[in-house]
Amino acid sequence: MGKLQVGDEAPDFELKDQDGNIVKLSEFKGKYPVVLFFYPKDKTYGCTREACSFRDKMSEFNELNAKVFGVSSDSVESHKSFADEQKLTFPLLSDEGGKVRKLYGVPKSMFIMPGRCTYVIGPDGIVRHIYNSQVGFANHVEEAKKALEKIRNDAQTAEE
Length: 160
Fold this sequence. Notes:
alpha/beta; antioxidant; disulfide bond; seven-stranded mixed beta sheet; Peroxiredoxin_BCP/PrxQ; single chain; Glutaredoxin; AhpC/TSA
């Protein structure tokens, strides 16, 4: 499968969160929009800033009825330590081996580092927005919120 595009169906996956719980993307289909932010590594400067930016805006994501997940290749144990240290209020998913990263076609940075890319998936399971920036840590949060607001507004318009 090639690089995922806006308008594609988001590939389903099953990953463990920092508490060892299995999270399946398909569980949210028909119920909630989902934000998946792929990041390179726990406890690094940029990744900590990005994760904390999502944490600090969680009330806004909750108002938009969205589920937020951070995804990296770090272990469940590493995620647990990172989430506890930073008081993260959303699940971190362990993609050891990078299978889901490959499935979504997350680009690499400088051809070697795991990329930083955010996918916003509508409640219908369709990718609505993709934002890729290795250095715009906080921009991932703003881009995701804008996409979620558009999803909400489109749904309200369709109801009228």
